[in-house]
Design brief:
The protein is of the alpha+beta class and about 270 residues long. The protein has two domains: about 100 residues, DNA Primase, Chain A, CATH 3.90.580; about 90 residues, no CATH class. The protein contains eight helices and twelve strands. It is elongated, with a radius of gyration of 21 Å.
Amino acid sequence: MNLVATAPANSEATRMSVARLAELLNDRIADLARDLLGEPNRELSSAQQLRFGTKGSVAVEIGSANKGRWFDHEEGIGGAGLELIQHRLGLDDNAARDWARNWLGEPASAPSRTATPSAPASGSVQPKAPTVKERAEKVAEIVRRTESLVSTPVLAYLHHRGITATPPDCIRYRQYAYGKFGAMVALATDEASEVLAIQQVYLTADGRKAPLDVVKRTNKAVDGWAERAAVRLPGYEPLVLCEGVETALSVWQATGQETWACLGISN
């Protein structure tokens, strides 16, 4: 069916269904597993099953009747392709589906030209805002999946901006933060070094900003974080306050002074 020619009024009609999405992910489970888990343990893998980790604790079915299924024997959790994305990247259902569509190469659907906003029907289900606990867990999961900057696109991204000094550990890298794109992750901490918020800048493999509508995203673990937390770059006094991470890193490199990035007043 020619989706362009039919020009559906509802943009969601151009989107791949969840069932089709799951089918395609399971069909390409070997590629998906490698992207999310790295290279399999060759000694423990077979033509029917890939095993990941030094002990092969994560089993992914690739050639049997259960193709597309996986199980993490250490954590006691398993599922199909979509669940693997959620498990490895710490995403909710909708975010995992968006990540999967991006990974499969589905273009973003265009906004509807005919649909008009309308008031929700009485009794309709409204999107549920995340709870304080859910926000904190999401931030903790993002931080858990970060790594140091060595040999990552973050260094190339900063070099493009004239920042050659290696940042402190509050600047991290997260692989597959959004589809195939990684992210520079800045940790905003309080005086006790507790992470109260993070900011992600999505990057291409060569260290450029990713071609996404939203390139920068801030996640808060607690309300009121901006009054207590900042991305803290150590140095000597006096303290310099900046809005953005990149500006703070430039000032920190040039002066050697303690520099904080407040991540923007709108946050």
